Every structure is written in C-alpha cells, then in structure tokens.
Amino acid sequence: MILDYSNSKTQAFTNGFIKSITSTATLFKNRKLQSIQPIELLRYPNVKEATVLKADWLKIGGDLKQVIENYESVF
C-alpha cells in the first residue's frame, strides 16, 4: 500500500474508498477459482426489476452520502 500525504483530504478519502472497493478482487489473485454453482433466480409476480433496482441504488446512495457527511464533519 502506498500512502501519499501530499493529497488533499478529499483525494485521500476517494483513493482509500476506491482501494477498499477493489481490495476484494485481490483475494483470489494468485489462486485458481473454483467453478461457480448456478444460482436459481427467484421471480416475484407484480414486481418490476427496474423499481427494485432503483430502490436499492437510492438506499446505497443514501448510505454513501451519510458516510461522506460523517467524514466531512470529523475533518
């Protein structure tokens, strides 16, 4: 991990956030992956996928906004 102390707080936060998201990809970097078992999708009648996806992303966006606001209030 390389730390660059010349970055602004916003740049440091963004760099750390991106590194944390991609860190799980490095877990299996040198390992042979096992075959993935098929996943059977559940279908719910009268529920549009677009509506559910929109609700999920609104929740995720709200969570990210709260994290950023908490970070800004500390620094």
Characterize the structure shown.
With 75 residues, the protein is mainly α. It has a domain of 28 residues. 53% of the residues lie in helices and 0% in strands. The chain is built from two helices and no strands. It is flat. The two termini are 23 Å apart. The mean pLDDT is 81.
Radius of gyration: 19 Å
Please, how many helices? Answer: 2
Strand tally, please?
A: 0
**Which structural class best describes the helix and strand composition?**
mainly alpha
In what range is the share of β-strand residues? under 5%
Oligomer: single chain
Task: Indicate the overall shape.
Answer: flat
Helix content: 40-55%
N-to-C terminal Cα separation, in Å?
A: 23 Å
Give the topology string: H per helix, E per strand. HH
Uncertain segments are none
- Mean of pLDDT: 81
Largest sheet: none
Descriptive tags:
single chain; 75 residues; mainly alpha; flat
What's a concise summary of this model?
The chain is built from 2 helices and no strands. With 75 residues, it is an all-alpha fold.
Topology diagram in text:
Layout: H1 9-22, H2 49-74
